[in-house]
Automatic annotation (TrEMBL), chain A:
This is RecA family profile 1 domain-containing protein. Belongs to the RecA family. RAD51 subfamily. It comes from the Eukaryota. Involved in the homologous recombination repair (HRR) pathway of double-stranded DNA breaks arising during DNA replication or induced by DNA-damaging agents. Residues 73-250 form the RecA family profile domain. Keywords: ATP-binding, DNA damage, DNA recombination, DNA repair, DNA-binding, Nucleotide-binding, Nucleus. Its main location: nucleus. Coiled coil: none annotated. InterPro entries: HRR_RAD51_Paralog, P-loop_NTPase, Rad51_C, Rad51D_C, RecA_ATP-bd.
UniProtKB/TrEMBL annotation, chain B:
This is RecA family profile 1 domain-containing protein. Coiled coil: none annotated. One of its GO terms (biological process) is double-strand break repair via homologous recombination. CDD domains: XRCC2. GO terms for cellular component: Rad51B-Rad51C-Rad51D-XRCC2 complex; replication fork. The lineage of its organism: Eukaryota, Viridiplantae, Streptophyta, Embryophyta, Tracheophyta. GO terms for molecular function: ATP binding; ATP-dependent DNA damage sensor activity; DNA binding. It comes from Gossypium mustelinum (Cotton).
Length: 305, 340
C-alpha cells in the first residue's frame, strides 16, 4: 500500500493538511482511510484516497462485459481426439483448469501430447514435465499423421515451426514450479497485447507428483502450498487467457475403487475433471466426466489415440 | 420548547402502516430450495456442503431471480428487479453457463405466459421469432444488473471489503441501481492459505500482522458496516468435508425415520442429530455472523427424466434454524425443483 506522502505528487489534494489529519487518526497508508465529515478539503482528500485504492485492484465487471470477454478471449481448443472433443462440446476451454485423472497407463500423457501438438500449430505451449514423460518423437508422430503428404522439405519446415512453439521445462518439486510460473507471469504481462504467436496452453504433467511429497496429513503448509498453486494457475488462466491441463493420479479409496489423489481440498480447484481409463490390451480408452461447469457428471465416451 | 416536545410524541404511522411499508420495501424472499424459511435483507445465509453439491448453482439461481424484473412488457418474470453482486473467491464462475441459465428462465417465463393464451405450435414459433429482440433486450438489461468480481487471495478480499461501500455508493449514483443480494462463492476458499501463512510481519511496525482470525474478523466487521448502510441479503457457500460416519446410508436412514415417526414425541429422536455432521473450520467471528445455515449434499440416486437426461437428486437440511425435515430437490436448466 502506498504511503500517502508518496501519493502527493500524483494527487495534489493530498497535501500536508490531509496527511496531518490522517496521521492524527493513525492512517499512514492508503489502506486505512475512513469516512469523516470535518471539512470539504478533507472530504475530497479521503474520496481521492478511496478512489486510488479502488483503481489499484480489479474493476467490477457486469454480466455483459464478462460475457463479451468470454466470447472474445475464452475460446475452446480441440484436443484432436474425437471422443474427448465430442464429450466436452468442442474441447478444453481457455481460462479454465481441466484435470485429467486416471490410474497409471491410462493415456493421460498421450492426451496431453496430442493436445499440445494440436494447439502448437498456431499458438505457443508450455509443458511442465515432472517425470520425463515429454516425448518430441510422439509429437512429431501426431503431427505427421495429420499433414498432407507434400515435399519432405515442406514437411520438415512445418514440423520445425510447430515444435518450436512448444517449450518444455522439467520441474521436480513444487518450488521450482512456482518459480517457473512466476517467470511465466512476468513474461505474459509483457507479451499480452502484442501481436504474433501468443501462449495459449499450459500443461502440468503431473501435479500430483509435485504436491504429494509436501502434503502430509498433519501439516497445514502442504495444503497451503497446494491451494496457492491452484490459485496461481487459475489466475494465469483467467488473466492471460491460457487453457490449463493438469494431470493427477489416483489413490485407493473406500470400497476398493480408486479416487483422485490430493484429497478433498483439491476438489474445489479445477473447473473440469475427467477420469480416464484404458481397456486392457487394446488402444481403446474411456473417459468420463467427474465434474464440468455445464455438463452433468457421469457422462462417458470412448476414444482411441 | 413545549411544541417541540409535543411534536416528538405525535405518532408517525401505525403498526399496520409500518408493516405494509416494510413488506413492500423489503419483501420476503422465498427462493427454492430455500423455501421453508422466508429470507429478508440483513440475513446472512450459509450454504454448506461437500464439493459438487450444487451450492454454486443455488447461488446463481438466486442471482437470476434477483436480476429478473417482476413484470416486463406484459410478461411476468417473477423476479425482484434489483442488482446482485457476486464475489468469486473460488474463481470458477462460468459466465457462459450463467447466460444459458438466464436465457432458459426468460424463455420459460415467456413461454409460460404464451401457453396460457393457448396458441398453436406454428403460432408459438412465429411468436418466438417476434419475441427474440425483446428477449435480447431483456437479457442485456438483466446482465447489466449482475456485478462480478474475483479475488485470488485473502488480502485482495480484505481490500475489496473495505472499498465495497464506496463502490456501491458510486454504482447507486451513476447507474441508479440498488444492490439487493450479495453472493460470496466459497467463504472458506483461503482458509488453508491463511492458516499456513501465519503472521508475516510487513514493513511498518504499526501494521497488524494478518492471519486467519484477524482477516475473518476484519471482513465480518466491514460487511456488517456495509449492511447498515446498504441493506442486502448475504448468501455464502462453504465447502466442507462430511464425516465418514455420516455417509449416504445414514442420512437416508434418518430421513426415513423422520417421515415414519410423525408424532409430537419424535423430539428425543431428532435431538441427537443436532451435532454437526461436518467439521466447522471458519473462525468464530464468521460463525456468529451467520443467521441461517443449510446443508446440501448429493445423493447417489438419479432422477430419470424420460428423456436421456439424468438429473442428480440432492438433499437439503436446515441447520439454522434447525428444522426436522429433509428436502429433496433436483437441478435443471430452468431452475431448482423440489421433489418432496
Amino acid at each position: 500500500m502506498a504511503r500517502l506522502a508518496n501519493l502527493e505528487t500524483e494527487y495534489p489534494v493530498l497535501d500536508s493538511t490531509v496527511r496531518n489529519f490522517c496521521a492524527s487518526h493513525g492512517i499512514f497508508s492508503a489502506a486505512f482511510a475512513e469516512q469523516n465529515n470535518s471539512s470539504e478539503r478533507l472530504k475530497e482528500g479521503i474520496a481521492q484516497v478511496l478512489s486510488v485504492i479502488d483503481d489499484m485492484h480489479q474493476p467490477w465487471l457486469n454480466g455483459m462485459e464478462l460475457l463479451e470477454d468470454a466470447k472474445r478471449n475464452k475460446h475452446v481448443f480441440p484436443t484432436g481426439i474425437q471422443g474427448i472433443d465430442l464429450l466436452l462440446g468442442g474441447g478444453i476451454r481457455v481460462g479454465q483448469l481441466t484435470e485429467l485423472v486416471g490410474p497409471s497407463s491410462s493415456g493421460k500423457t498421450q492426451v496431453c501430447l496430442r493436445t499440445a501438438s494440436n494447439v502448437a500449430r498456431n499458438h505457443m505451449v508450455l509443458y511442465l514435465d515432472t517425470g520425463n514423460s515429454f516425448s518430441p518423437q510422439r509429437i512429431a508422430y501426431f503431427l505427421g499423421k495429420t499433414i498432407n503428404p507434400s515435399s519432405a522439405q515442406a514437411k520438415n519446415q512445418f514440423l520445425q515451426k510447430v515444435m518450436s512453439n512448444i517449450s518444455c521445462h522439467s520441474v521436480f518439486d513444487i518450488f521450482a514450479m512456482f518459480d517457473v510460473l512466476h517467470q511465466l507471469e512476468s513474461y505474459l504481462r509483457c507479451q499480452d497485447g502484442r501481436g504474433g504467436c501468443q501462449m495459449r496452453l499450459l500443461i502440468v504433467d503431473s501435479i500430483s507428483s509435485l504436491i504429494s511429497p509436501v502434503l502430509g496429513s498433519s501439516s497445514t503448509q502442504g495444503r497451503a502450498l497446494m491451494t496457492s498453486a491452484g490459485y496461481l494457475l487459475k489466475k494465469l488462466a483467467h488473466q492471460h487467457n491460457l487453457a490449463v491441463l493438469i494431470i493427477n493420479h489416483t489413490v485407493g479409496g473406500e470400497g476398493g475403487y480408486s479416487k483422485p489423489a490430493l484429497g478433498d481440498s483439491w476438489k474445489c480447484i479445477p473447473h473440469s475433471r475427467l477420469f480416464l481409463s484404458c481397456d486392457r490390451g487394446s488402444n481403446n480408452y474411456n473417459v468420463s466426466i467427474l465434474r464440468h461447469p455445464s455438463m452433468a457428471s457421469g457422462k462417458a465416451a470412448r476414444f482411441v489415440i | 420548547m413545549g411544541s417541540h416536545a409535543k411534536a416528538w410524541l405525535v405518532e408517525d404511522e401505525s403498526a399496520r402502516e409500518m408493516l405494509d411499508r416494510v413488506l413492500t420495501e423489503r419483501p420476503f424472499l422465498l427462493l427454492p430450495p430455500l423455501h421453508r424459511v422466508p429470507l429478508r435483507v440483513g440475513n446472512v445465509v450459509e450454504l454448506v456442503g461437500p464439493s459438487s453439491s450444487s451450492k454454486t448453482h443455488i447461488l446463481i439461481q438466486a442471482a437470476i431471480t434477483c436480476i429478473l424484473p417482476k413484470l416486463w412488457k406484459g410478461v411476468s418474470y417473477g423476479g425482484l428487479g434489483h442488482s446482485a453482486m457476486f464475489i468469486d473467491l473460488d474463481c470458477r464462475f462460468d459466465v457462459l453457463r450463467f447466460s444459458e441459465l438466464l436465457n432458459h428462465r426468460i424463455m420459460e417465463a415467456a413461454n409460460g405466459s404464451s401457453s396460457k393464451v393457448g396458441c398453436h405450435q406454428k403460432d408459438s414459433e412465429a411468436q418466438f421469432e417476434r419475441m427474440k429482440p425483446y428477449h435480447e433486450e431483456l437479457f442485456a438489461l438483466c446482465m447489466k444488473r449482475f456485478l462480478y468480481i474475483r479475488c485470488y487471495d485473502s488480502s485482495e478480499f480484505l481490500r475489496l471489503s473495505r472499498t465495497l461501500h464506496y463502490r456501491l455508493q458510486k454504482e447507486r449514483e451513476v447507474h441508479g441501481v440498488n444492490v439487493h443480494l450479495l453472493l460470496i462463492d466459497s467463504i472458506g476458499a483461503f482458509h488453508w492459505v491463511d492458516r499456513g501463512s501465519s503472521s508475516f510481519p510487513l514493513e511498518c511496525d504499526n501494521r497488524k500482522s494478518w492471519h486467519l482470525q484477524n482477516v475473518s474478523e476484519a471482513v465480518v466487521q466491514e460487511i456488517r458496516r456495509l449492511l447498515l448502510v446498504h441493506p442486502m441479503l448475504v448468501m455464502a457457500t462453504k465447502a466442507v468435508v462430511l464425516g465418514n460416519k455420516y455417509s449416504t446410508n445414514e442420512l437416508t436412514w434418518n430421513y426415513r425415520k423422520c417421515s415414519a415417526v410423525d408424532n409430537p414425541y419424535s423430539r428425543n429422536i431428532t435431538s441427537s442429530d443436532q451435532q454437526l455432521p461436518y467439521r466447522e473450520y471458519m473462525p468464530a467471528a464468521w460463525q456468529s455472523f451467520v443467521t441461517h445455515r443449510i446443508l446440501v449434499r448429493a445423493t447417489d440416486d438419479d432422477l430419470v427424466n424420460g428423456e436421456h437426461q439424468n438429473n442428480s437428486i440432492y438433499l437439503l437440511k436446515w441447520l439454522l434454524p434447525p428444522l426436522n425435515s429433509l428436502d429433496k430437490f433436483t437441478v435443471r436448466d430452468t431452475g431448482v425443483f423440489i421433489l418432496s
